[in-house]
Automatic annotation (TrEMBL):
It is found in: Cell membrane. The keyword Transport applies. The keyword NAD applies. This is NADH-quinone oxidoreductase subunit D. Its main location: membrane. Residues 130-271 form the NADH-quinone oxidoreductase subunit D domain. Keywords: NAD, Oxidoreductase, Translocase, Transport. It comes from Desulfomonile tiedjei.
Length: 272
């Protein structure tokens, strides 16, 4: 700061403010309370309070049959429901030494990847909305609706398909599913380009995300971060590559990595 302005800074020095963000009503999704200490617009400290949505799933599962637990797993993260049920099914199959048919493995991968896209779309839309970009979420809900239509076609459920079963899936794909999936994937790259036009070089969005929420790699590792979070901190970590399951070793795909360690890098990893 220039010498001649130092007295101005002293005269207008702000007091630190403690602000409670949340908790919100427990019927809403992903709620928590954050006690935030602010110095102007600078976040000095945050103390998170979690557990507002604790439902005791583990205890509930103790009194359920193996197949009855599958719908409960999907409710742990309804934005990526099939990813949760796949993890549970893989665990039980390993425990019981169950071999899953190859066709069922391919179907599982398709459902898991659609869930992954579904989750990323909603993250991108709501994240942009939270920092003031109102338009992108309407674009992303468009593709999210197409994925829900695919879930509904083959499983009946739009948000939580409840399609996977221990040993495979509940039934084969419905007629027309593959054709509609191909139609979706054929134009999806163009839709991602639209998202990037709205956000990636948007100066307001960049200013509000670049250099914000810095998470160095060593801290990300210490905190047990994974997925896009740790990849945005510079580590090419993807469990589908490191410890392949459900036939992922048969697929070729890149692992997007960024080194900015900030909110903008976490966005870039997800949209890559």
């Amino acid at each position: 700061m220039p010498q001649e302005l130092s007295h101005v800074s002293e005269a207008f020095r702000s007091e630190k403010l403690e602000l409670n963000l949340g908790p919100h009503h427990p019927s809403t999704h992903g709620v928590f309370r954050a006690v935030v200490e602010l110095d102007g617009e600078i976040v000095v400290d945050v103390i998170p309070h979690l557990g507002y949505l604790h439902r005791g799933y583990e205890k509930t599962c103790e009194n359920k049959h193996y197949h009855q637990i599958i719908p409960l797993t999907e409710r742990c993260d309804y934005m990526a429901a099939s990813a949760n049920s796949l993890l549970y099914c893989l665990t039980v199959e390993k425990l019981l030494d169950v071999e899953v048919p190859e066709r069922a493995q391919v179907i599982r991968v398709m459902m898991a990847e659609l869930s992954r896209i579904f989750s990323h779309l909603f993250w991108l839309g709501t994240h942009g909305h939270d920092v003031g970009a109102m338009t992108p979420i309407f674009y992303m809900l468009r593709e999210r609706e197409e994925i829900m239509n695919l879930f509904e076609l083959t499983a009946g459920g739009r948000l939580m398909p409840n399609y996977l079963r221990i040993g495979g899936v509940i039934q084969d794909l419905e007629n027309g599913f593959v054709e509609r999936l191909r139609a979706f994937t054929d134009h999806f790259d163009e839709r991602v380009d639209e998202y990037e036009e709205l956000l990636t070089k948007n100066p307001i969005y960049v200013d509000r995300t670049r250099g914000i929420g810095i998470l160095p790699l060593k801290d990300a590792i210490a905190l047990g971060a994974s997925g896009p979070v740790i990849r945005a901190s510079g580590m090419a970590w993807d469990i589908r590559k490191r410890e392949p399951y459900s036939g992922y070793e048969n697929y070729s795909f890149d692992i997007p990595v960024e080194t900015g360690c900030d909110a903008y890098s976490r966005y870039l990893v997800r949209v890559a």
